[in-house]
Structure formats: structure tokens, C-alpha cells
Amino acid sequence: MDIRDLQGYGSFFMTIFLVVMLYGYIIHLYRSEKKGERDYEKYGRIALDDEVTSTPVEDKPASERENEKENK
Amino acid sequence: MQANAALEYDYSLAKKFTFLTILFGFLGMLVGTIIAAQMAFPELNYLLGEYGTFSRLRPIHTNTVVFGFTVSAIFATWFYVGQRVLKVSMAESRFLMVIGNIQFWLYFIGALLATISLLFGISSSKEYAQYEWPFDIVVVIVWVLWGFNIMGLIGIRREKALYISVWYYLACFLGISMLYLFNNMAIPTYFATEGLGNIFHSVSMYSGTNDALVQWWYGHNAVAFGFTVPIVAMIYYFLPKESGQAIYSYKLSLLSFWGLMFVYLWAGSHHLLWSTVPDWMQTMGSAFSIVLILPSWGSAINMLLTMKGEWNQVTENPLIKFMVLASTFYMLSTIEGPIQAIKSVNAIAHFTDWIPGHVHDGVLGWVVFMVMASIFHMAPRMFKREIYSRKLMEVQFWLQTTAVVLYFTSMWIAGITQGMMWRAVDEYGNLMYSFIDTVTVLHPYYTIRALSGVMYLTGFLMFAYNIYKTMTAGRELSEEPQFRTPMA
User: Fold this and answer.
1) How close does chain A come to B307, measured CA to CA in Å?
2) Predicted confidence band at B5 (pLDDT cuts at 50, 70, 90)?
3) Do B149 and B99 touch, CB atoms closer than 8 A?
4) CA-CA 20 to 30 A from B339: which of A22, B245, B268, B352?
């Protein structure tokens, strides 16, 4: 088996691997929403309610922001 | 920053890059129109000596619209959208403002000098990568500074979740970084020839088929990460914001994003069908190009479905019309590209005028329309004034839409005619036509293309005038509009 065959097989199996990953991701998205762990659709609001004073759709924990301020 | 001071978004960088978008857009399209006219009337090649020939001007056209116009628009919209969806003002970080301003001036001066260098014939002769190595270094520095700004703004954000547009901007940053570095690896001939060569002239580090593969991996993905990904970032923000409708399916936007990232990088070898690259690689390029329809249409359909129940806005708001037309052209060109990548179709289409036809329905219909729509949306917020003229927008829309249709239909007919004539053989297997026969037949279509260029450029000037008048004479707004852009 020469290098070109190896490249061909490498590409083929990597494609299969990535396809499995992508389909796994679709299942993950729908399953976590069905189980109520996450609501992905609420993130669409980020574009609509985007004033600097608006309440974030998902707030960064206050402690995290305080830490950042101290580090500035 | 005082806790009680009214915090506002800082649009100074978005404004500066908007001006550059308009400047480079005009320059790039002007040169494009000139070279389209040269194709129809070759005597126009000799108006300015060596500086006016097609071969000198063509790289200026492509590089100015890619690295001048589109990249400026990417920066302009990032410095607007980035702040808003992360809910943090640039004014909150002096460091990021300084970095952003250095990025602006370095980019402006670098882009101008790079354009002049092409006019003087200083070129590395790789398509869409003609800038010689000193300019490549400037591009890299500008890009790294932009990277600092993206990461910096993300670092100080209030909104924890990264909106889908931010993912697309990040992909644009990472994709172009990788592509640009690898394809522009070159050695100045001065160092390779014991002083006989020139310090400003370099040769690629790759050769032969490898060079072609790296070049088209770059060339095709420059379209992916320059003309697709950041423009999708724009429409995912500006269409929902302008229409007041959240994205139809946020999950579909995530899925299309990863699908696009996964598939796009493998499709570049469709530029090298029937060439010396390994056969399996050609087939892979074709196959991935067909699969690419799915994530592309995933985004486009998501955009169109965002307007579900609100289609009346297309007639009421010209800005929505611009964006809906842009996503429609995105659908058209992302079905056309895969068709051209099928090996048997490519046998006719390759090297013909159908290819620039395809590029231009994508770029004129999708990229430029979306960029202009973004600027129309940003202008009243940045300048606190109403859009100067709605009527002018409407006229511009129809003029430019007609121009795009004339461009791609003439090039479809020209390309397929050309491809068929090149392959036509008589009963003994001899070629029926010589090259000049095809040129004679194509002349009317080249003339139509030049005319469409004049029309599109006129539309762009109307856009520039409308923005200029908005800045200087538009009715002042007392408060920032929430959704629909106000216009007189």
C-alpha cells in the first residue's frame, strides 16, 4: 500500500468519523431540549434584545465579572 | 468607568470601517467594470500604457473587492454586531479601542499600498493571493489585531451565550488565518539565487500539483471564510433585528454552522477536476461540493423562514427586500456551484465564462447586497439620523437586481456556448472551431456584461450618495430605533 492509498483510506474513515460526530450533535441538540436541560431557541432573542442595558439572555455569573474587573 | 455614567455602544470603529467599505467597494467595482468593458472592446486595454491592461487591472479588481471591500465590511459589522450581541461597549476597554485603531490605520495604509503595488506589477502571481510577502506580513498583523479584539470583547462580555453570528465571525477569523498563512508561504527570489533575484519578488514554497492543491484549497475556502461565513454572520443578526423576528430555528443555525465547517474545507479540489491531482481527491471534491448544498440551504431557508408570517415586510421595508434577495441569491449560487462541481458538467463549464457568472451572482447578489443592507441598517444607529431617501433605495435595488440578472444570464449563455464550441468535433474527430470563432460569438454577451457592470456601479454610487446624505442631511433621531430602520 503506497502513500496515496493511505491518504485515500485516511480521508474515507475521517469522513465517516465526522459524519457520526455531526449526526451525534443533532441528536444531542434535540435530546437535551426534549429532556428540558436546555432551551436553544431562547438564544435567538440575543439579537432582538441587544441594548447594552438589556438583561442578558444568559447572564455571566456576577462573581466572574467581578473577578475580571479586579484583574483589569 | 463610573458605575452611574450612561453606558453606550461605541461605534467609532464601525464608522471608520464603513467608510473604507464604501471607498474600496467603489474602487473594486470601478476596476471590475473597466475590465469587463476591455473584454468586449479590447482597444480599451491601451489607454494607460502598461498600467491599464487587463492583466494589471484584474488582480486589482479581485483583491480590492475581497481584501478591501469585503474585509472592511466584515470589520465594520463586527465592531457593531460584536458589541451588541455580547452586550458590552468598546468604550469599556481602552486597550481594545487602541488595538482597534491601530488595526484600522495599519489596514487602511496597507491596503492602499498593496493596491498600488499591484498596479506596478509587483505580484506573486497566485490567484487571489497576488500580494507580495511584505503585504502578507501586514495582513497577518492586522488579522492578529482583529483576533485580539474579538477575543478581548468576548472576554469582557455580559451575555454569557455566544450568539450564532459570533460563531461565524470566529470561524472567519480562524479560517482565513489558516488559509492565508499556508498558501502565502514563499521565498524571495533574492535569497534563492545568491543575490540575482529580487527582494520584492517571491516564489511559492510548493510546486507543481502540490502548489495547485494548496492554491485551490485556499482559493475555494477564501470564498468560504471570506464571502460566505462572515456574510451569514451579518444576515443572522441584521435580518432578525430589522424585522423584529427571532431566527426561525436556532438549532438549525447551529447545525448548519457545524455542517458548513465540516464540509467546506474538503470541497476545494473541485477547482482541479480533470487535472493531475489524484482521482480520489477529485471525486472527494465533487462529493463534498454536493453535500455542501445541505448546510448552505440550511442557513438560507432558516433566513427565509424567519420572515414566516411577516412577508408583508418585504413590500413595506426596502431593507428587508435587500436581505431577502441576498439570501435568495445565496441559495441560487450554492446550488449552482455544486452543479458545476459535478465532473461531467465541469468538463463543459471549466475555464468558461460560466465560472465568473457563478462567482458574480454570489458576490453581487449575495455579498454586496447583504453588506449594503447591513450598512443601511447601521447608519441611522451610528449617525443618529434617518436614512436620507427611501425612493433612492428602491431605484437602486431594482437597478442593481437587473444588473445582476443581466450579468449571470449573459455569462451562463456565453459559458455554455464557449464550452460546447471548444468540444465540438466533426465526423472525422477534428475540432470544428478555432479559439477566435468563440471570441466572435461571445462578443454580444461581453457587451451585456459590461453594461451590467455600469448599471451595478451606478447603483453602488446611489448607495454611497444615500449614506453620505444620511450622515449630513438626514433628519435627526431623538432615540435609537429598536427594529425597523427609519427612512424618509
Assistant:
1) 14
2) low
3) yes
4) A22
Question: What pLDDT is recorded for position B383?
Answer: 97
Contact residues, chain A, for B284 at CB < 8 Å: 11
Q: Supply the pTM of this predicted model.
A: 0.94
Q: Do B158 and A56 touch (CB under 8 A)?
A: yes
Q: Which residue of B lies nearest to A38 if distances are taken between CA atoms?
A: B251
Cβ-contact B58, B35 below 8 angstroms: yes
Q: Cell 491601451: give the residue.
A: B46
pLDDT tens column, B246-266: 999 999 999 999 999 989 988
Q: Cell numbers of B110, please?
A: 496597507
CATH assignment at residue B397: 1.20.210.10
Residue B22 belongs to a domain: no
Query: From CA B22, how far away is CA B266, in angstroms rounded?
Result: 33
- Cβ-defined contact of B160 to A56 (cutoff 8 Å): yes
Distant-in-sequence contacts of B441-448, Cβ < 8 A, 24+ apart: B441/B417, B442/B353, B442/B414, B442/B417, B442/B418, B443/B40, B445/B353, B445/B410, B445/B411, B445/B413, B445/B414, B445/B417, B446/B36, B446/B39, B446/B40, B446/B410, B446/B414, B447/B40, B448/B406, B448/B410
CA distance B463 to B42: 30
**pLDDT tens digits for B349-383?**
999 999 999 999 999 999 999 999 999 999 999 99
Longest dimension (CA), chain A: 63
Torsions phi, psi for A61 (to 5 deg): -55, 135
Whole-number Cα distances in Å, B143 to B10, B72, B148, B180 = 21, 12, 9, 10
Q: By C-alpha distance, which of B80, B91, B102, B78 is closest to B150? A: B78
The answer as to whether B103 is a domain residue is no
pLDDT score for A4: 82
Q: What is the ipTM of this complex?
A: 0.86
Number of neighbouring beta carbons within 10 Å of residue B49:
8
User: How many domains, chain B?
Assistant: 1
Count other C-beta atoms under 10 Å from residue B378's C-beta.
Answer: 22
Helices B250-264 and B293-306 cross at an angle (nearest 10°) of 150
Q: Report chain B residues whose CB lies below 8 A from the CB of A13.
A: none
Range of B410's domain? 310-488
Backbone angles phi, psi at B158, to 5 degrees: -95, -35
- The answer to whether residue B485 is domain-embedded is yes
- Residues B289-337 pLDDT 10s: 999 999 999 999 999 999 999 999 999 999 999 999 999 999 999 999 9
Whether the predicted pLDDT of A64 surpasses 70: no
Q: Residue B273 and residue B341: Cα distance in Å, rounded?
A: 8
Within a domain: B235: no
Please give the Cα distance from A51 to A49 (Å, whole number). 6
Could you tell me which of B373, B122, B108, B138 has the C-alpha nearest to residue B243? Answer: B373
Q: Please judge whether A56 and B280 are an interchain contact, meaning their C-beta atoms are less than 8 angstroms apart.
A: no
Give how far Cα B410 sits from Cα of B253, B291, B399, B416, Å: 34, 28, 16, 10
CB contact at 8 A, A56 and B160: yes
Is there a contact between B251 and A30 if contact means CB atoms under 8 Å apart?
yes
Average pLDDT over chain B, rounded to whole? 95
